Amino acid sequence: MSLDVPTALLEKAERGDVTDAEFVDCVRVSLPYAWDLISEVATRAKEGTAEFADNTTPPPSEAERGQLLRALASDAIRGGLERHFGVKLSFQNCHRVAAFLPSAVDSDRYRAFISPRGQLLNQSPELRDC
Matching NCBIfam families, A to Z (predicted)? Predict the structure, then answer.
């Protein structure tokens, strides 16, 4: 299961739409490792002078890796996180998460990061089974 959905939020979703804030809070509580990592790269992207920030440190365990995969593999979760943090998220190798400023999404650096070449250059034997 991707998210631990409180009964009240599930009932609200059954009656109609939930707000982004309610959804994102459910993500924050359910996937704390993913939330903290994405929050950190988004903050660095906004505060830095580069057009993006990323993380290259693998998660400490499979549980944390699973959180990250669930957060970024779901269009709804990923979209909610992008709207909440005001960044475009990109993902490689089960752990390399980058947060790009919206103004950088059409940049050479962004296109290089999301390209097949970028993916191939980011491979390593120790990450083969991530």
Answer: SCO5389_fam (NF040488)
Q: Look at residue 1 and tell me if it is in a domain.
A: no
Q: At what angle do helices 75-85 and 62-73 cross, to 10 degrees?
A: 90
Mean pLDDT of 76-86: 96
Please provide the size of the chain in residues.
Answer: 130
**For residues 100 and 107, what is the distance between their CA atoms, to the nearest angstrom?**
10
| Three-state DSSP state, 24 | helix
Element (H, E) at 70: helix 62-73
Q: Is residue 70 part of a domain?
A: yes
Instruction: Provide the number of structural domains found in the chain.
Output: 1
Q: Which residues constitute the domain of residue 16?
A: 7-127
Alpha-carbon dihedral sign for residues 10, 38, 64, 127: positive
pTM: 0.86
* pLDDT for 76: 95
| Selection from 27, 29, 9 nearest residue 18 by Cα | 9
Task: Kindly state whether residue 67 falls inside one of the protein's structural domains.
Answer: yes
Backbone angles phi, psi at 52, to 5 degrees: -160, 165
